[in-house]
Specification:
By secondary structure, this protein is of the alpha+beta class. It is built from three helices and nine strands, in the order αββαββββββαβ. Helices cover 40% and strands 35% of the residues.
Length: 168
């Protein structure tokens, strides 16, 4: 009788373990579904920024936009119509132009590199062709351009930036 009870308990344990193993596949499937849903949400949040385009004196450049409140506000502003920002050369390493409005900012001490795009005092866009250390909110970075190319594009006295967004 004792042997029979041990056998039954052993079989029950094996069946229970097998059932648990089968159930582990379902949470993984749910986790994959959750990850897919998160990707969809992330893509929806990024639409306003990945659909944003920057032209420097009518030449479109590739920008990797930051994922922050300032960039989302800039994308919202650009979705209302193209933003044209007249900039001026400042300090021999940057172009600065006023937005005509103030965006939310989250300034931190930052050392910039050529191609960095930042928000200064909440209402000015700065595009760097050199380096500087100051308190800024990062907006993005121009990709695919060398320092010399950026200096050629941005080193003049007056540069016009045009920011558009594909999303309303």
């Amino acid at each position: 009788m004792k042997k029979m009870l041990i056998l039954i308990l052993t079989i029950a344990l094996i069946v229970a373990l097998a059932a648990c193993a089968d159930k582990k596949e379902t949470p993984n499937a749910d986790a994959s579904e959750d990850a897919l849903q998160t990707d969809i949400i992330d893509n929806e949040e990024e639409r306003g920024t990945t659909g944003m385009r920057l032209k420097i004196n009518n030449e479109e450049v590739d920008v990797k936009w930051e994922d922050n409140e300032s960039v989302r506000a800039l994308a919202d502003l650009a979705s209302e119509g193209s933003l044209t920002i007249d900039t001026s050369r400042y300090g021999g390493f940057e172009q600065v132009g006023g937005l005509g409005t103030t965006l939310p900012d989250n300034d931190v001490n930052t050392t910039t590199e050529p191609g960095d795009i930042v928000l200064y005092t909440g209402s000015n866009i700065v595009v760097f062709f050199g380096t500087n250390t100051w308190v800024y909110t990062r907006l993005g970075h121009i990709e695919g351009k060398s320092g010399d190319e950026l200096r050629d594009m941005l080193g003049g006295n007056n540069v016009v930036l045009t920011i558009t967004s594909d999303y309303n």
